[in-house]
Amino acid sequence: MAPKKLTHQVTLELAAGNAPVVDLGKMLGQTGVNLVEIKKTYDAATANQRGDVVPVVVSVFEDRSFALRLKSPPTAFLIKKALGDKGSSRPGHEVAGKITTAQLREIAERKLPDLNTSDVEMAMRTIAGTARSMGVAVVD
């Protein structure tokens, strides 16, 4: 059997366990794919991550079938989640909050499959750079 021909591919950042059909319709409506079926599949796959933003790569094929590939939540989202209520977003403040090295390691381990390294220490440096650019300090 010949491989299916890919006609459309898009990456969306959706709420885990509760993907809004409106967002799916904006990006995939013109493809003719069954949006309700995509929503059901995505929601079932991400139900255990409710409250997170989980990016998904949606591939639509010539026969209007589809495939979903889930990614890890965005780094900035995970850093903000680690900050919780401790962060400050007031203008003029250099540091928006602090995260611990343990929190940094946890985020790096979660992001590892989507990064271009397999070394946790390198991943931690990458995540720390994102944290610095957000005004978040990493403390021991």
Features:
140 residues; alpha+beta; 3-stranded antiparallel beta sheet; 5 strands; elongated
Helix content: 25-40%
Proportion of β residues? 15-25%
How many helical elements?
5
- Strand elements, count: 5
Computed over alpha carbons, the radius of gyration is 18 Å
Shape: elongated
Q: Could you spell the SSE succession in H and E letters? A: EHHEEHEHHE
| Uncertain spans | none
> Gap between N and C termini, in Å?
55 Å
* Major β-sheet profile: 3 strands, antiparallel
Strand order of the largest sheet: 1-2-3
Structure description:
This protein is α+β, with helices and mostly antiparallel strands. The chain contains five helices and five strands; from the N terminus they run βααββαβααβ. The chain has helices spanning 21-28, 35-46, 75-83, 101-111, 120-133; strands at 6-15, 53-61, 66-70, 97-100, 136-139. The strands form two sheets. A three-stranded antiparallel sheet has the order 1-2-3, with helices on one face. A two-stranded parallel sheet has the order 4-5. Helix 1 (21-28) packs across helix 2 and helix 4 packs across helix 5. The termini are far apart.
